[in-house]
Every structure is written in structure tokens, then in C-alpha cells.
Write a structure and sequence with these properties.
The chain is mostly helical. It has seven helices and no strands. Helices cover about 70% and strands about 0% of the residues. Helix 1 packs antiparallel against helix 2 and helix 2 runs antiparallel to helix 3. The mean pLDDT is about 85.
Length: about 190
């Protein structure tokens, strides 16, 4: 006896990357890095291109990872890992910039750390940061950017853990396709 079967519940696209807070945060990091580089690093300096590419890679690998998420947890995890690695590279470049210029990195005893972390946790939109970036001094700007980078790295680590957990629960695409086919056969026999 034939039954109407709903579409199989595998290979469905996940929500848009644009809705991911980590993507929004990395887009802000990219825009702020572009702004920072224009005012602080000579365009002919190799660091300029490396920092811009690391910021871009942090953002773009989230786009690609999310786009491939429906069909491959392995690729999704790998691309989120590449994004995280690129952000670590960018973070190190900012820390080098700060160290070589004697700019202090704000740590827990600093009076502005708690508020800065809260602001960066509460806002992911690039427009928010770009509205006041030009009014910040080097110390404020670089500390804000590295705070955003630390948060994005943490978010990517959590996303990787979620993808791993989802894989353990649901299996990979081949496994899901096999189970859907068996279910279809059983319902249509």
C-alpha cells in the first residue's frame, strides 16, 4: 500500500550564515580591520595584506562552512576551524602591533575591561562599531578589536562542539540517507 511521505529530513539547509552571531561579529572584525589598516599600516607593508586576508578568511570560512553544513559535518567543522585559525593569526598581528608600540592590552584589573567585554558581547553588527570607531584612540580601538576577536574565537569553538554533538546524534549525510531510504521502503511496501 502506498503512503504519502513527507520529504526526507536530511540535507536541509541550516539557517542563513547571516543570522549567525559569529558571522555578524566577524563581519564587524573585518570592517574594523579594514578601517584600522587604512589609518595605521602602510598599504605596501606585507602586514597590511596579511591582516586583511586573515580577517576576510575568518568571515568567509563561516559563510562556506554554513553553506556546506547540510551535506557535510566534516567540511563544516574544518571550515569553522580554518576561520578560527585565521582569527588567531589576526589576533596575533594586533597583539604584535600593540606590543611593538607600547599599547597596553586591557586585562581584568583594567577599569574598562568589564564594560568593553559587555559591549562587545551585546553588539555584533558592524554598523554599531563603525559609527564610533573614528573617535577611538589606538589603545581603545585595538583593545575593542581584540576583544571582538577573542569572542568570535570562543563562539567558533562552541559552534564546532555543537556540530560534533549533532553529528553524534544524527550521523552523517550517508547515514541519514540510508535511514531515510529504509523508512521510505518500509512505508511504501
Amino acid at each position: 500500500m502506498k503512503h504519502d511521505n513527507p520529504p526526507a529530513d536530511f540535507a536541509r539547509p541550516k539557517t542563513s550564515y547571516r543570522k549567525l552571531y559569529v558571522f555578524q561579529k566577524t563581519e564587524a572584525i573585518y570592517d574594523l580591520t579594514y578601517f584600522f589598516l587604512k589609518g595605521h599600516i602602510n598599504q605596501s607593508d606585507r602586514t597590511y595584506d596579511q591582516m586583511l586576508q586573515a580577517a576576510r578568511s575568518g568571515k568567509q570560512n563561516i559563510v562556506e562552512g554554513r553553506s556546506d553544513a547540510a551535506t557535510s559535518a566534516e567540511i563544516e567543522i574544518r571550515l569553522y576551524g580554518v576561520a578560527r585559525g585565521s582569527l588567531h593569526e589576526l589576533l596575533n598581528d594586533y597583539l604584535d602591533y600593540m606590543r611593538t608600540r607600547g599599547i597596553p592590552v586591557w586585562e581584568v584589573p583594567h577599569p574598562r575591561v568589564k564594560k568593553l567585554r559587555q559591549v562587545c558581547r551585546s553588539h555584533n553588527d558592524s554598523v554599531y562599531y563603525m559609527a564610533f570607531a573614528s573617535r577611538l584612540n589606538d589603545e581603545e580601538l585595538t583593545n575593542m578589536i581584540i576583544t571582538l576577536i577573542y569572542q568570535a574565537i570562543s563562539m567558533l569553538s562552541k559552534m564546532i562542539d555543537l556540530v560534533k554533538a549533532d553529528f553524534l546524534k544524527k550521523g552523517g549525510i550517508k547515514e541519514q540517507m540510508f535511514h531515510a531510504r529504509i523508512k521510505y521502503r518500509n512505508n511504501n511496501s
